[in-house]
Amino acid sequence: MSEPIRKIDHQIIEKDGKPAFAVVPYEVFQKLCQEKPSSHEATIPHAVVKANVRGDTLVKAWREHLGMTQKDLASHAGVSQPAIAKLERSGANPRYSTLEKLAEAMKISVEQLEG
User: What is the model's pTM?
Assistant: First the structure.
């Protein structure tokens, strides 16, 4: 079942007779920016996909995409830096609970870390 569509006050700005921009109240914009995508909306940036295809794990690809060091990620996720290094090696099989910590530390969804 799909989520109900919520009514949002907005204004459509047209260019050449076609919709070009949607203007929403700033408080609505802020709320939308804070929402995490649901699992069916989880996306992965091209740079992360490209790094993963060339052989990097999704953990490493996301960390580097977000400009974090292994030490940064370890600190935010409550794990050790050597644990992050181990998770970034090919063939690593992290526990779901570890993926949850990493996802929260990187402000992404667990689904975006699962390969």
Answer: 0.65
Residues 29 and 66 grouped into a single domain: no
Is residue 63 one of the residues assigned to a domain? Answer: yes
- Whether 52 and 99 map to the same domain: the answer is yes
Quick one: the chain helix, strand, coil %, rounded to 5? Answer: 50, 10, 40
Same domain, 46 and 68: yes
What digits encode the pLDDT tens for the residues 66-77?
999 999 999 999
Other C-beta atoms closer than 10 Å to the C-beta of 17 total 6
